[in-house]
C-alpha cells in the first residue's frame, strides 16, 4: 500500500510522537478521516538506510475495528500508511 497521508499528531517535550488521526484518499477520490483509538506499538526502524518510526495503531472506521501500520520518516517528516492488517 505505502500511501502518503495527512496526519495530526502530538509531539511531546521529550521528543516522542503520538499519532491522533489521519486522512487518506479512498477509492472514490475523496478523503476519509481515521481517528486513532490506541497506539498498540511504536518502534524505531531503518529501511534502505532511512530512519523511521513504525506505529501499529487501532482505529474504528464505520462499524469495524481496524489495525493500521503507519510510518513516520524522520528525515522528511512524512507519514505513510504502510498497510491495513484487518
What does it look like?
With 86 residues, the chain is mostly beta strands. The chain contains no helices and 7 strands. The model has no long low-confidence stretch (mean pLDDT 94). The two termini are 13 Å apart.
How are helices and strands ordered from N to C?
EEEEEEE
General shape: globular
Strand content: over 45%
Structural class: mainly beta
How many E strands? 7
Summed over residues and divided by their number, the pLDDT gives a mean of 94
- The parts where pLDDT drops under 50 for at least 5 residues are none
> What portion of residues is helical?
under 10%
* Measured distance between first and last alpha carbons: 13 Å
Sheet with the most strands, sense and barrel status? 7 strands, antiparallel
Cα radius of gyration in angstroms: 13 Å
Produce the secondary structure layout.
Blueprint: E1 3-4, E2 6-11, E3 17-25, E4 31-47, E5 50-61, E6 64-73, E7 78-84
Antiparallel strand pairs: 1-7, 2-3, 3-4, 4-5, 5-6, 6-7
Task: Sum this structure up briefly.
This protein is mainly β and 86 residues long. It is built from no helices and seven strands.
